[in-house]
């Protein structure tokens, strides 16, 4: 038996007895309006947000708020016209000129304004970080109150890479001066896609 194997065997035989995981239900969200809370928190951290009824509204807002003469890519077939549908097979270095990337979140978290983006949603891992501006479509029913509910959903998911992203890139390391777009997208826009007729949010 090698030294490594001997050490690992000793660790295995000297582990403490198993104990149940702590109850974290008290940390989970209550009955608050998660959509309203998400809107408030996300805009407070520098994000831009719109509540929309369909993809046609998203397309119209993009044409109004972004420079469509520059490269706009999306992973969503619903927005592939007139925008460029992202290819997952091309060299990621070819995305160095992306002005705006539009992707769909797996879920969003009301308490911190973050969206959960596994690799399957990104198209390619580089996309949410290399673009000048990032737009994320969030179905309203996927917004959860806290990270505890989020981890309940994603804890056993099958993905090789994923990230919580909350708001545009920012830093305040230098003289405590807040700088947007320091090392990633300059802006982040979230489109909350309503699925229920009775969902009313005023932004």
Structural topology:
Elements: H1 3-13, H2 34-44, E1 48-52, H3 55-65, E2 71-74, E3 84-85, E4 98-104, E5 107-109, E6 115-118, H4 119-122, H5 127-130, E7 133-139, E8 143-144, H6 147-154, E9 162-165, E10 170-171, E11 179-180, E12 187-193
Parallel strand pairs: 1-12, 2-3, 2-4, 4-7, 5-8, 7-12
Antiparallel strand pairs: 5-6, 6-9, 10-11
InterPro entries: FTHF_cligase-like_sf, LUD_dom, NagB/RpiA_transferase-like
Organism: Spirosoma telluris
Domain LUD: 94-193
Quick rundown:
With 203 residues, the protein is α/β, with parallel strands linked by helices.
Main attributes of the structure:
203 residues; alpha/beta; Rossmann fold; four-stranded mixed beta sheet; 12 strands; globular; NagB/RpiA_transferase-like; Lactate utilization protein B/C
Fold and architecture overview:
The protein is an alpha/beta fold and 203 residues long. It has one domain: 3-Layer(aba) Sandwich (Rossmann fold), CATH 3.40.50.10420. Helix content is 24%, strand content 24%. The chain is built from 6 helices and 12 strands. The chain has helices at 3-13, 34-44, 55-65, 119-122, 127-130, 147-154; strands at residues 48-52, 71-74, 84-85, 98-104, 107-109, 115-118, 133-139, 143-144, 162-165, 170-171, 179-180, 187-193. The chain has a 6-stranded parallel β-sheet, sandwiched between helices. A 4-stranded mixed β-sheet has the order 8-5-6-9. The radius of gyration is 20 Å and the shape is globular. The termini are far apart. The relative contact order is 0.19. The mean pLDDT is 90.
């Amino acid at each position: 038996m090698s030294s490594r194997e001997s050490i690992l065997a000793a660790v295995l035989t000297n582990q403490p007895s198993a104990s149940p995981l702590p109850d974290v239900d008290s940390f989970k969200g209550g009955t608050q309006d998660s959509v309203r809370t998400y809107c408030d928190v996300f805009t407070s951290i520098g994000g831009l947000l719109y509540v929309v009824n369909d993809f046609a509204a998203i397309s119209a807002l993009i044409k109004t708020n972004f420079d469509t003469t520059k490269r706009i890519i999306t992973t969503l077939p619903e927005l592939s016209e007139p925008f460029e549908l992202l290819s997952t097979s091309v060299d990621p270095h070819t995305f160095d000129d992306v002005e705006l990337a539009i992707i769909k979140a797996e879920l969003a978290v009301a308490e911190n304004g973050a969206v959960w983006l596994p690799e399957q949603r990104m198209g390619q891992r580089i996309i949410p970080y290399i673009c000048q501006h990032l737009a994320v479509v969030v179905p309203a029913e996927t917004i959860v109150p806290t990270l505890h509910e989020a981890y309940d959903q994603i804890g056993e998911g099958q993905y090789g890479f994923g990230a919580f992203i909350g708001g545009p890139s920012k830093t305040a390391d230098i003289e405590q001066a807040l700088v947007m777009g320091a090392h990633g997208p300059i802006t982040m826009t979230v489109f909350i896609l309503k699925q229920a007729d009775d969902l009313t949010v005023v932004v």
